[in-house]
Structures are given as structure tokens and as C-alpha cells.
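ok so I'm stuck.
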Amino acid sequence: MRTSDRSGVCEHCQQPFIRKCYAASRPTPRFCSYKCRGEGTRKPLDQRKQSYEFRWIMVDHPLNYRDVLTKIPLHRLVLYNKIGPGPHPCHWCHKPVNWLPGKSTGSGALVADHLDQNKTNNAPDNLVPSCHGCNAYRDHPNKILDHEPFITDKKGYRHRAVVRICQHCHKLFQHLAAEARPNRGLFCSQKCARSK
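replied:
not stuck anymore, here's the structure
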């Protein structure tokens, strides 16, 4: 196997280095070691993903699902102390949710949701009970906001819509944005489509 020496200056410690490369197509290394690569590519503290705080709870606590001392997220403990045992309505969709220790993402499980979406703000006023669907949907990058046009299906899910003008009665109506067929969404109703 043919090797070649590549030299460069480390982007982290600014020291010159020589590395053996086994493939001519590989780019010149940017760092002199794995340690420098880890420290050089690490995000600053303010840009890192926020993480939850945890607290130990006793064996007899209602949120403990094991027979030993257990760690749980602090925001769940704070919300439990605020609202007590369930069931409670979801803050967003009002479905009943309950504390299911060990199953915080299951169907009907209560999730402690941060209103300002700051994971480190565990003030009781910032925490509300939520179902898993509403909690996950709030963090979704393509979520449909209340002021945007949308159509709700039979299950209650929102679908992005566009506002169009009926070609017969010239009334504004909403149509699914994902509908790509050219002859669909021209009329506001079947009555207008038949009277064309």
C-alpha cells in the first residue's frame, strides 16, 4: 500500500504536523490529533444543545417506576409538585393525560412541557401538562401555525393549505397545498364545478 506524507498546521493548537495518508484522494488533515479535532470542532457553550437537569427520588415516590433510588428529570418533578396526581387535560389539545412512570412518550402519557421551550427554565409557571404528540409537534420545524391556512382532517391533524379563488363564483377557499394534480382545486365546491 502506497503512503504519502501530508504536512499542515493544526487548526486548534496552531502547531505544524506531518501525517501519513494512505489514499491520494483524501484531503489534507486539519488537526494534528483526535484530541485537537474534538476540541476544535466542539460548539461553544452557548450554542450547544440544552440538556435537562435530573434529581434523585425515593423508592416510594409516585413517579418512581423501579424498586431502587431513581433519577428523573427535574421538570417532571416540579410539575408533579405543582399539579399532583392525574389525570389532567393536555394544555394544547385538552386530551386527558396521566402520569405513567417509565412511559413518558406512550399513548395517554403526561409530558412536562416548557412553555418558553427553554429546557433549563424549570419554574412552575413555565411548566404545563402535555400529551406526547403536542409536545413533539411544538418542536417540529415544519409545524403549521395558527395564523397560517390549514385544513383539519377527521383525526384532527393539520395539513398545509393554500388560498385560491373559485373559477365559477370567485369566492376565496382553501385547498390542500400538497395536491399537485392540475385540474384539482379550481372550484370551491362540486356545485361550482358542475355548473361550469
